[in-house]
Specification:
The chain is of the alpha+beta class. It has 12 helices and 11 strands. Strands 1-3-4-11-6-9 form a 6-stranded antiparallel beta sheet, with helices on both faces. Strands 2-5-10-7-8 form a 5-stranded antiparallel beta sheet.
Length: about 325
């Protein structure tokens, strides 16, 4: 989703079936299981800006499931982040579980089944975004799903405080403000994820290697000379092995570099901070040295010219 103005999400209900409709429409298809020992009440407030959903959820005890059947019927390639504001939460995914207290953060992937359970007095911030927005491979991110990230420690503390404050400011996320907040939030989340993964106990050396390769690519996207040879040399592997790794991933080195560059250009074209900057200058900042080639690549990727996209004509 790439709308210029945020979409407003606001729903309150006292029926579990209605809540299932609300969360399935706002997030991804889910099944809701209310705790029959408690009267059911739930409320969702949110904004969608530049394809990123910011929301606050407050509800009585209940459980939600995303099953293999949901995924087969409606495959969705999103990452969700939950910040527990009050009450308790439990996330189960990838044969792991994370118990959440207020301030804690957890990540999960909508392309695989998961279960979320919330206790009494729960309130949470949920941020949902396309996977491509954090420039980290799915297999690397999988090392972090259903792992509790303590919100009172290290860089995660800054993210926790930022998102908690944002939950009270959702009505203000309009137009340019919404875009700036969306971009800043994604930068913070990507930094936190990278920090957490850099200290992870990797179970697969190949996945760890791909994480290091991704990091090198992300740090050098602005370099027009970035390519297989320079990446392989920086990561102390052969160019042939690098191509083999990307073949297993179902893509190529050049394709990944191009897609990540285009994603950053796309973001900057809509960012009000760069409104006075020419399209060619923005493209060059992300490694597209040839303006004519960039325009063709962007049109092939987005279906419109960079100028039309900037004006919201996508």
């Amino acid at each position: 989703m790439s709308e210029m103005a945020p979409i407003v999400v606001s729903e309150a209900t006292e029926r579990a079936q209605r809540w299932q409709e609300v969360v399935s429409r706002s997030f991804v298809p889910l099944t809701v299981h209310p705790d029959e020992r408690h009267p059911f009440r739930a409320r969702l407030e949110g904004r969608i800006s530049d394809g990123v959903l910011f929301s606050t959820v407050r509800a009585s005890p209940h459980r939600v499931e995303r099953t293999s059947a949901h995924i087969a019927a409606a495959p969705e390639d999103y990452v969700k982040l939950t910040l527990q504001l009050s009450g308790t939460g439990l996330l189960i995914q990838d044969d792991r579980s994370a118990t959440l207290a207020p301030g804690d953060i957890v990540l999960y992937d909508t392309s695989r089944p998961y279960t979320l359970e919330f206790g009494e007095g729960m309130a949470a911030v949920v941020v949902m975004f396309p996977h491509r927005r954090i420039d980290i491979a799915q297999e690397s991110l999988r090392q972090l799903t259903a792992i509790r990230i303590a919100g009172d420690d290290g860089f995660a503390r800054a993210v926790s405080h930022f998102l908690a404050g944002l939950s009270n400011a959702l009505p203000t996320l309009d137009g340019p403000t919404g875009l700036r907040i969306a971009h800043s939030t994604m930068d913070l989340i990507a930094t936190m994820v990278g920090h957490e993964l850099s200290g992870a106990a990797w179970t697969d050396p190949v996945t760890e290697l791909m994480f290091r390769i991704d990091g090198h690519i992300n740090r050098h996207l602005e370099d027009p000379a970035l390519g297989p040879e320079s990446i392989a040399a920086a990561c102390f592997i052969s160019t042939r092995y690098l191509h083999e790794l990307f073949h297993r991933r179902g893509t190529t080195v050049s394709s990944l570099i191009r897609e990540r560059r285009l994603e950053h250009v796309r973001r900057d074209l809509r960012d009000p901070r760069y409104a006075a900057e020419g399209v060619a200058a923005i493209a060059a900042r992300w490694g597209f040295a040839d303006a004519s080639h960039f325009s063709k690549v962007f049109r092939a990727h987005s279906g419109v010219s960079p100028t039309a996209y900037r004006l919201g004509e996508d």
